[in-house]
Specification:
The complex is a heterodimer.
Chain A: H1 2-15, E1 29-36, H2 44-51, H3 54-57, E2 60-67, H4 69-77, E3 83-86, H5 88-96, E4 101-106, E5 113-118, E6 133-136, H6 141-153, E7 162-165, H7 170-175, E8 181-185, H8 189-198, E9 208-212, H9 213-216, E10 223-227, H10 228-233, H11 235-254, H12 256-263, H13 274-293, H14 299-314, H15 319-335, H16 345-358
Parallel strand pairs in A: 1-2, 1-3, 6-7, 6-8
Antiparallel strand pairs in A: 3-10, 4-10, 5-8, 5-9
Helix pairs in contact in A: 2-11, 2-12, 5-16, 11-12, 12-13, 14-15
Chain B: H1 2-24, H2 30-33, H3 35-40, H4 42-60, H5 72-84, H6 88-119, H7 121-135, H8 139-150, H9 154-178, H10 182-190, H11 195-232, H12 238-247, H13 251-279, H14 281-284
Helix pairs in contact in B: 1-11, 5-13, 6-7, 6-9, 6-11, 6-12, 8-9, 8-11, 9-11, 11-12, 11-13, 12-13
Classes of the chains: A alpha/beta, B mainly alpha.
Chain lengths: 378, 286
């Protein structure tokens, strides 16, 4: 198995190296960084931190790779990966099963799961889902935990709905009429479904709404995770990684146009025509100038800038070219907070309660041991 | 699993080669041959015990954390637990059902298409490019589409299992029928046999050894196909159980499901071998 792990690591080094630079004369600490799924614009804080040299400035040479979340957690717990972007309930489940992992930076401030439904029909509230055919990727992971919490918040259980496992195919199955509603990531699939509906490619659905888990219950979501050993034995490394990631995240939130352009070097096939590139470049420069002139701009003002940017782009470009940019903007809403990276003990306790109720973890433990705010930049 | 199937296939080839060689070699003295069959049953048992000892040794040396590689004792304990509380059975029966139905659909269709292609060069020229293209595309690449088209229930898994079985059966049927010696065909022609008689009395029986060899591989492939489907989207089955156990960081349960799958594959292989011995006894006896 170690041989396989070494092979996997070697492949990661060959294919996923996100940095090759070395700051002048100073050797960088090699750090491996695990991400789920495949390269995606949602990982733009990592790409921006790399492209703008935040990792290197913190003495780090980061190698990224992607895979299944439980595998990544095991690799982190075993010390085969240094860090990873992992969801909170996975951290709790892993810890309950002997994996010494800990969340050191809360990346998502809002739980990203929700239930998408067709607007203008019989479904208008969560209780309307009773007896309906609802799709879900599977009875596992954040989708299942989120659905359980959402239903519970409305006095319902899984038995009240007709839950069907459809894999990660919600847009296809939903638009083909295979399900009446579907558990989705609110920053992604609803945009794709809405885009299809707009093009008349989603059956009778013309627009969609989303019941967001975050509106009903405050559960912990994805964060930067490492091993307890790394925290105790090399806290300086953890601090530097978190500092670089935080800088990347702030840049994405404040200048998504720039982040999108930089992400295109890491995400194969990210839609970026020459015209869109030019428009985003101009918008990025404008945003940089705005930030220079308004260093104390509030979150709301910056959020309004993002909305204005999207509206401006929508008037110039076809919607299919903007889908991924919309996904990025929608995801930023889930990251943005007054205090980036801060983990709220309450949300960890709530998440543990949900997992206990689901039977996902066998026993109660101290959820405060699953995370730390000690490494947040000042 | 794929390696398991390949290994079984290679073992089978080795066994057959040994049989052919034995037919051409000078028979050993009767006294020398007596001990071998008596001890042969011990060999796999010793190999299995050796494997368990090696596994336990690696665990005791603590080369890996227990959450990555639990010992055989922990896995056995989990096995007893999931058998006792009834967790395992629904998953086992789901995979078994998918595998058997996939085999029942894919194997006859493969044989039928193989016969048609073996008989008609025109049909072969027409269809073989498509078949070659489909055969060389791993089913896992298009399995997600099958799940979307046929739903996440048992139907899509049966279709995936049937597809994994279909191509080896088809190719081996073609090979089996076309390898019938020309002299025997001439003999049938001499007796004014009809095409159906030639097929039924000569070509089909003559290709049975090849067909059974394909069937032995196909039963394990049907399990692989079923597991592929369960990995993509399912609510039951051993593949789903593995996925669920991984998601819950229950490594002993992952290994329980893997071992059960291996045993299932070995049993299915053995059943086909037994049927083969019964059906084509005539060939062995000469």
């Amino acid at each position: 198995m170690r041989f396989l792990i070494i092979i996997a690591l070697a492949l990661g080094l060959l294919t996923g190296k996100v940095t090759g630079q070395e700051s002048a004369g100073t050797p960088l600490d090699e750090v491996s960084f695990f991400m789920t799924f495949v390269p995606n614009v949602q990982f733009s804080p990592v790409y921006v931190a790399e492209a703008k040299g935040y990792f290197a400035a913190n003495g780090l040479s980061v190698t990224g790779d992607h895979g299944d979340e439980p595998v990544g957690v095991d690799l982190i717990a075993a010390g085969e990966r240094d860090f990873g972007l992992v969801s909170g309930e996975q951290v709790l489940a892993a810890r309950a099963n002997g994996r010494p992992v800990i969340s050191v930076y809360e990346w998502f401030q809002q739980y990203p799961v929700g239930v998408v439904y067709p607007e203008g029909g019989d479904i208008n509230t969560v209780p309307d889902l009773a007896g309906r055919n609802v799709g879900i990727p599977g009875r596992f992971g954040a989708s299942y935990s989120g659905l359980t919490a959402l239903l519970d918040a409305h006095g319902m259980t899984e038995q009240d709905i007709d839950l069907e496992e459809i894999g990660f195919n919600a847009p296809e199955v939903f638009c083909a009429g295979g399900v009446e509603a579907s558990v989705v990531y609110v920053n992604n699939e609803p945009i794709q479904i809405a885009h299809r509906a707009e093009q008349g490619d989603c059956g009778e659905v013309t627009s969609v709404g989303v019941f967001r888990v975050a509106d009903a219950v405050d559960m912990v979501s994805n964060g930067v995770v490492t091993s307890e050993a790394r925290v105790t034995e090399n806290s300086d490394l953890v601090r530097r990684l978190v500092t670089a990631f935080d800088a990347g995240l702030r840049d994405v939130i404040q200048n998504p146009a720039e982040a999108y352009i930089l992400s295109a070097d890491f995400v194969e096939g990210l839609p970026l025509s020459a015209e869109l590139h030019a428009a985003l470049e101009a918008a990025a420069a404008e945003q940089t100038a705005y930030r220079g002139a308004n260093p104390d701009a509030s979150r709301e003002e910056i959020a309004a800038q993002r909305v204005a940017l999207l509206e401006s782009l929508q008037s110039e470009f076809p919607s299919d070219e903007l889908v991924q940019f919309e996904v990025l903007l929608s995801t930023i809403e889930l990251w943005d907070a007054d205090r980036l990276g801060y983990a709220d003990p309450e949300s960890w306790a709530t998440t543990q309660d949900v997992l206990l109720e689901m039977g996902y973890i066998p026993r109660e433990s101290d959820p405060s041991e699953a995370f730390t705010n000690d490494f947040l930049p000042e | 699993m794929a390696y398991g199937a390949l290994f079984m296939h290679l073992s089978d080839l080795t066994r057959r080669t040994a049989m052919v060689r034995a037919q051409h070699e000078t028979p050993a003295e009767p006294g020398h041959r007596l001990h071998v069959p008596r001890l042969r049953w011990l060999i796999p048992l010793l190999a299995f015990l050796g494997f368990l000892l090696l596994w336990e040794g690696v665990v005791r040396l603590e080369l890996y954390p227990a959450f990555i590689l639990p010992g055989p004792g922990a896995v056995a304990e989990r096995f007893v637990q999931v058998v006792g509380d009834g967790t395992l059975w629904p998953h086992l029966t789901t995979t078994l059902t998918q595998m058997l139905l996939g085999l029942a659909i894919g194997a006859p269709l493969g044989v039928l298409m193989g016969v048609l292609l073996a008989k008609s060069r025109t049909l072969e020229a027409l269809i073989s490019p498509i078949i070659l293209a489909a055969q060389s595309t791993p089913v896992v690449a298009y399995a997600p589409l099958l799940i979307i088209w046929f739903g996440s229930g048992i139907t899509s898994k049966i279709i995936i299992a049937a597809l994994t079985v279909f191509f080896p059966m088809l190719m081996n049927t073609m090979v089996g029928i076309r390898n019938v010696p020309q002299s025997r065909r001439d003999m049938m022609r001499l007796f004014n046999a009809t095409p159906w008689q030639t097929f039924w009395k000569l070509e089909f029986p003559a290709s049975l050894p090849v067909l059974f060899a394909a069937l032995r591989v196909s039963v394990t492939l049907a399990i692989i196909g079923s597991i592929i489907g369960e990995f993509i989207s399912a609510s039951s089955g051993l593949g789903y159980l593995i996925k669920l156990a991984r998601d819950r960081y229950d490594t002993p349960l992952v290994l329980v499901a893997v071992v059960v799958l291996a045993v299932l594959a070995r049993l299915a292989y053995w059943v086909v071998t037994v049927i083969e011995r019964k059906v084509i006894r005539w060939q062995r006896t000469g």
